[in-house]
Write a structure and sequence with these properties.
It is a single chain. The protein has helices at 2-25, 28-59, 78-85, 90-106, 108-119, 126-138, 141-152, 158-163, 183-208, 212-220, 225-236, 238-253, 257-262, 275-284, 290-321, and strands at residues 62-63, 73-74. With 322 residues, it is mainly alpha-helical. It has a two-stranded antiparallel ribbon. The radius of gyration is 27 Å and the shape is globular. The two termini are 36 Å apart.
Length: 322
């Protein structure tokens, strides 16, 4: 015991100078570089994200026409009360956001994962397929919206011409973006075209980092391709799976530009109401109501944070219990 204590004491003494020497490695220039590296992004985050967000929360409790600070009047929770009880587009917008999130989670996300798994098997022309599927992600969302606007044009669009439904006096004439029962689904298809490539490239990068010995061990144990993917690959890629789920939720809740383009720059087109469009209409529309728009933005912020934080807490709790 005495020998162990003596050796432990010597080790402790021998380690102490090493920690000090590590601290002395950082010169004044290094510390200044680290301060700039961390401080500048932190200040930018505070100035351009958190301060406007907090200001928006504060404005949501006021009535303001957006001209001069003298016209700001405190109304408490009145904006929120009106939104939930006396604003007809609100609940359809919530419903459409939920549909958007469920559709994105069930259709383009699994499609992107499936394509990534197939392309990771080194099939012929894999690079060409990757480039073709990823191309919509490179394009601006607004440009993607313009492309699909041309496709959905009821008179001269590609889709109606292919289906033979482009005769305005015909029985089967389809106005994809004008029909309130169809336009949301038409936009979802356009969004899925882009989101599939995004998920594909994320998952493909994750698959490249999986240890090949895991697949070899699964093959030796007699697992087929499906079993290897579900029981070996998916658990090994848990960080990528969490990232994709968070991105899917965020993209669904903040969807805006593609809908805005496909609705003809009309943020309140029937059938295409979204919370992000209602915020824009009330904040910078023809009759701006920044207080009302800020209240809508706060509702969207709470919903977004609630969904993501709940999922992450549950996920981290399972990791600690494992």
């Amino acid at each position: 015991m005495a020998l162990t204590a003596e050796v432990t004491g010597k080790n402790a003494k021998s380690r102490a100078p090493r920690r000090g020497s590590r601290m002395r490695v950082l010169s004044v220039g290094d510390k200044a570089f680290l301060a700039v590296l961390i401080g500048v992004p932190l200040l930018a985050l505070l100035a351009f994200v958190w301060l406007p967000a907090l200001a928006s929360v504060g404005i949501s409790f006021t009535q303001w026409d957006g001209i001069g600070f003298d016209s700001i009047h405190w109304v408490g929770l009145q904006n929120y009360k009106n939104i939930f009880t006396n604003y007809p587009p609100f609940w359809p917008a919530v419903e459409h956001n939920v549909i958007w999130m469920v559709f994105t989670a069930l259709v383009p996300t699994p499609a992107g994962i499936f394509l990534a798994y197939q392309l990771d098997r080194k099939i012929r022309f894999s690079r060409v397929y990757q480039m073709a599927i990823f191309l919509p992600v490179v394009l601006s969302t607004a440009v993607v919206g313009f492309i699909w606007e041309i496709i959905y044009d009821p008179d001269h669009g590609l889709l109606n011409s292919a289906l033979g439904t482009n005769n305005p006096s015909g029985k089967h004439y389809i106005d994809w973006l004008g029909n309130p029962h169809l336009n949301l689904w038409a936009v979802l298809v356009a969004s899925a075209w882009r989101h599939t490539g995004y998920v594909m490239i994320l998952y493909l990068a994750g698959l490249k980092s999986v240890d090949p010995s895991l697949r070899e061990a699964a093959a030796i144990d007699g697992a087929n391709g499906r079993q290897t993917f579900l029981r070996v690959i998916v658990p090994a890629m848990k960080p990528i799976n969490v990232t994709i789920i968070v991105i899917t939720v965020m993209e669904s809740l903040r969807a805006f530009d593609m809908v805005y383009v496909l609705s003809g720059n009309n943020g309140s087109k029937q059938g295409m109401e979204l919370l992000s469009l209602l915020i824009t209409n009330n904040t910078v529309g023809e009759s701006p109501r920044p207080g009302y728009g800020s209240a809508l933005a706060t509702v969207l912020l709470v919903v977004s944070l609630g969904a993501i934080v709940t999922f992450l807490v549950q996920n981290f709790r399972k990791e600690r219990q494992a």
